Amino acid sequence: MKAGQYIQSPSQTEIVPLQPVPESGLNVGQLFAALRRKLLLVLGVTAAVTGAAGLKALTDTPIYSARLEILVQSMTAETEIISSVPGTLTSEQGPPATKTPTVNEDLLRILSSPKILVPVFEKLKQEYPAVCQAFGGNSTPPESTAEPSVPAASSANLDETSTANLGETANDPCYKSVVRRVSVGVVGKDSNIIQATYQGVDPNEVQTFLELLSQAYLNYSLASRQTDINRATQFVNKKLPDLEQRVATLQDRLEQLRLRHNLIDPESRGQQLSNQVGAFSQQQLEAQVELEQIRALYSDLQSQLASQPSETAASAALSENPRYQALLNRLLELDAKIAATSTVFLDTTPDMQVLREERQNLLSILSREGTQAQREVLSKIQALQVREQALRETLSSLNSGVRELSGVSRQYADIQRELEIATQTLNQFLAKQQALQIEAAQREVPWEVLTPATEPLPTVSSMSQNLILGAILGLLLGVGSALLFDRLTEVIYTAEELKRLVRMPLLGSIPYNEALVESGFRLSLFGAPRPTPAEIVETRRTSSLDRADSFFEAFRSLHANIRLLNSDTPIRSFVISSTAPGEGKTTVAAYLAQAAAAMDQRVLVIDTDLRCPRLHEYLNLTNDKGLVDVLSGDAEVSQVLQRSPLEPNLYVLTAGPTPPDPTRLLSSQRMHHLMEQAHKTFDLIIYDTPPLLGFADSYLVTAHTDGVMLVVELGKLKRSLLEQTLEQLKISSTQALGVILQKSTQA
After folding, report:
1. Could you tell me the pLDDT band of residue 288, with boundaries at 50, 70 and 90?
2. Among the listed residues 139, 138, 143, 124, the one whose alpha carbon sits nearest the alpha carbon of residue 199
3. DSSP β-bridge partners for residue 448
4. Cα–Cα distance between 624 and 500 in angstroms, integer?
5. Which of 106, 178, 174, 175 has its CA nearest to residue 144?
6. What's the sign of the alpha-carbon dihedral 111, 115, 119, 125?
C-alpha cells in the first residue's frame, strides 16, 4: 500500500518550538476553557443561589426608609473673620482658588457621633419603648452604613446629658441597633447638602426619629456658630492690646527720629539738599573759571610791565583801568605838544625843558599806576581763591548731609511702613470686634432644612431585583467554584499550560478525530478490539472517514519535524514513551512508522513494552514470537521480523510472550547487540517502550538511542505526574528530543 492512499491533504498541524514561558497574568482563553469544561457546575450553583434569593424576597419583613436634607453654610464665622485679618496663618495662605465645600469627613463623623445621636435616641426611646425589638437588639438591619461611636468636638443636645451617660448609652446594644440604621452623607461631590436616612419596621418611628434628628442638627449648627463667634471674639480681644502697643511704639520711634535729625519729612529735606548741592557746585565751577582767567591776566600784565615801558604796555588789565588810560592820554597829548614845540624851540629852551619834565613826571605816575594795577589783580586772585575754598568746604558739608540723610530715610521708611501696617491691622481688628458683637447678638440658625423628613416607604427588594442579584451572585460563585475545582484537578488541558512546565520543543500535535473514534480507528480505553490499517483503508472507501486526513497528515508533519530536529546529525533511532499508560504512545509509534516508511525510508519499529505489548494489534500482526525470543536466544531476528502489509519499507519486531523479568532482558548484551545491528541495517528505528513513571525499561533503551520523545495527552495527564517525569529525566540525564501532543475530547 502506498502512502498516498491514506495521506491526501496538506499538513494541518503547525509545529512550534517550545520555549520556557514564565508565569504570566490572567489568561482569558484558559478561563473560558475551564468554564466550558465545568459548565454543569456553574449552572447548578447559579440556579441554587438564584432560588435562595427568590425565597428570601418572599419571606423578608418590610423595612421602611425615609430621608431629610439640610443645607450647611459654606463658611463659619470664625474662619471668615480670621481669614480676613492680616498677620494670621489663614490670611497669609491667601484666599482659596475655588470654593471649599463645608461638609467634610470630620463633620459627617460628628453628626453620626453619640454627642448628637444619644439625645435623639433617648427621646425616641421615650416615645417608642420597643424601638429595638423589631431588629432583635444587636441584629444588623439591611443596608446599614452609619459608623458608631465617633468622638465629637462639639454638638447640640436635646437634653442635658452627662459624659458618663453618653458613654453608657453608646455601649447599649439597643442604641447600637438604632445607630446602624442611620446613614449620614452628602448629596453629591463637593456639595454642601447633608442627607440623613433612617430605616425601621414602624413608619411612625422612622418619621419621629428624622424629625428629632433634624432639630438636633439645627441646634448643633446654632451652638457651633456661637462657639465659633466666641472663639473669634477671644482671639480679637487677645490681639487688640498687642496691636495698640505696637502702634504706640512705632509712633514713638518715628518722633524720636525726627527730633534727633531735625527733620519732618526726609524726602523734602533730601530734595532741598540736592538743590543746594547743585547750586554750590555751579558757583564753585564759576569761581574756578574766573580764577584761572584772573591768573592769566595777572601773568600777562606782569610780563608786559617787566619787558616794555609803561606807556607802551597793552595788557587787558591796563586797558580796563580808567586812571591808567587817563594818564596815558595825557602823555600822548604832551608828546604831541613837545613835538609841536620842538619845531619852534630848541631842546635847551626853558619851554622845552618844562615840557620834558612834565613828561617825565607823567611817566613816573604811569609806572606807579601799572604797579597799582598789578596789586589790584593780585587782590582779585586772592579773593577768588578764598571764595573757591569756601565753596569746596560747603559742598563737602552738603554731601555729608546727603549721605547721612539716606540712612535716615531708610529708617524713616521702615518705621513708617510698619506703622501703616500696624495701624491698618488695628483698624480691622476694631471693626471685627464690633462685627462680632453684632453677630453674637443674633440667634438665627445658620443651617437650613431643604427637605423635611419624607414619608417612610418600604424598601424590601422586589422579586425581580432579588432574582437578578441572586443570579449575578450565583454566577460569580459558580464561576469561582468551577475555576477552583479545575485548578485542584491538576489536569493539563492546553499546550500553553504544558509550555510552562517543560523545556522541550513541541514536535507535533495529533488532533482528536471523532469520525475515527466512532469507526473504531483508535484503541478503545475499555478494551474493544482495534481494526487493522487494512480495514481502515477499506472503510474509508465506503464511509465518511475523509475527515481523518488531518489525523494522518499530522504524522507526516511530525516525521518532517523529527528529520529537521538536528540537521547536522540526522536522528536514526529514538524511543516513544509517555508519563502514564493510555496516552497514545503506541498509536503514535505505529502511525509515525508508517509515515516514515511512506517517505522511502527503511523503518523498523520494535515493541519494547514487554509488560503490556499492543503494537501488533495496531499493525494487524501476530505476536507468537518476537523480541523476547530473540533476547532469550530461542530465535533469530530474521525468524521473528515481520514486514507490514501496508508499507513495503516498514518492518516490525513485536514483543513476543510476556517474560518474567523484562528489565533484565532489555539491559542484556543481546539487546545492545540487536540495537547496533538494527542501526546498521535500517534508516530509522522506533522503540515503543512502557511509561516512564514506575518502570526503568524506557531509560535502559533510550541510553542506546538518540533520545526519547514524550507523548502527552491533553485533558488527561496531571501536572504532578509530568513534573515527576521531567525530574526523573533530569536525574537520569536522558536525552529528551521533544513533546508530541495527543488531544482528547476534554482538551
Report:
1. confident
2. 143
3. 71
4. 44
5. 178
6. positive
State how far the alpha carbon of 97 is from the alpha carbons of 83, 94, 102, in Å: 14, 9, 15
Q: Are 15 and 441 in contact (CB under 8 A)?
A: no
- Asked if 119 contacts 216 with a C-beta cutoff of 8 angstroms, the reply is yes
Q: For the chain, what is the radius of gyration of the CA atoms? A: 63
**From its phi and psi, is residue 514 left (phi > 0), alpha (psi between -120 and 50) or beta?**
alpha
Instruction: Give 651-706 as a DSSP string.
Output: EEE---SPPS-HHHHHTSHHHHHHHHHHHHH-SEEEEE---STT-SHHHHHHTTSS
Q: Cβ of 304: how many Cβ atoms within 10 Å?
A: 19
User: Which residues, in sequence order, are CB contacts of 714 under 8 Å at separation 6+?
Assistant: 492, 493, 494, 495, 498, 741, 742, 743, 744, 746, 747
Separation between Cα atoms, residue 72 and residue 102, nearest integer Å = 7
Task: Output the pLDDT for position 156.
Answer: 40
User: Which residues, listed in sequence order, are joined to residue 738 by a DSSP beta bridge?
Assistant: 709
Among the listed residues 445, 46, 431, the one whose alpha carbon sits nearest the alpha carbon of residue 224 = 445
Element of type H or E holding 311: none
Checking if the pLDDT of 740 tops 80, the result is yes
Q: How much of the chain exceeds pLDDT 90, in percent? A: 8
Chain centroid to CA 698: how far? 57
Cell 503514535 locates to: 588
Whose CA is closest to 286, among 398, 393, 384? 384
CA 264 to chain centre: 63
- Sequence-ordered list of residues with C-beta below 8 angstroms from that of 495, at least 6 positions apart, any chain: 506, 509, 714, 741
- Terminal Cα distance for the chain, rounded: 33
DSSP-based helix, strand, coil % in the chain, nearest 5? 60, 10, 30
Write out pLDDT tens, residues 365-404. 766 766 676 777 777 777 877 877 887 778 777 777 676 6
Cα separation, 283 vs 288, in Å, equals 9
**Burial (CB count <10 Å: 0-12, 13-18, 19+), residue 346:** exposed
8 A C-beta contact, residue 150 and residue 112: yes
Q: Average pLDDT of 209-226?
A: 85
Question: What are the cell numbers at 245?
Answer: 502697643
CA distance 191 to 104: 10
Residue owning grid cell 506703622: 419
Q: How many residues does this entry show for the chain?
A: 747
Q: In what order do the strands lie in the sheet with 506-510?
A: 506-510, 736-743, 708-714, 573-578, 684-688, 603-607, 650-653, 642-643
Q: How far is Cα 611 from Cα 608, in angstroms, rounded to an integer? A: 9
SS3 67: strand
The pLDDT value recorded for residue 163 is: 59
Q: Which of 66, 65, 181, 195 is nearest to 121 (CA)?
A: 181
Pairing of strands 642-643, 650-653: antiparallel
Burial class (CB in 10 A: 0-12, 13-18, 19+), 689: buried
Cell numbers at 110, concatenated: 460628628
Instruction: Give the Cα separation of 469 and 542 in Å (integer).
Output: 56
**Lookup result for grid cell 600822548:** 332
| Secondary structure, 3-state, 521-569 | CCCCCCCCCCCCHHHHHHHHHHCCHHHHHHHHHHHHHHHHHHHCCCCCC
The amino acid that residue 351 corresponds to is D
pLDDT at 155: 40
Query: For 148-179, what is each residue's pLDDT tens digit?
Result: 333 333 444 444 445 567 777 778 888 888 88
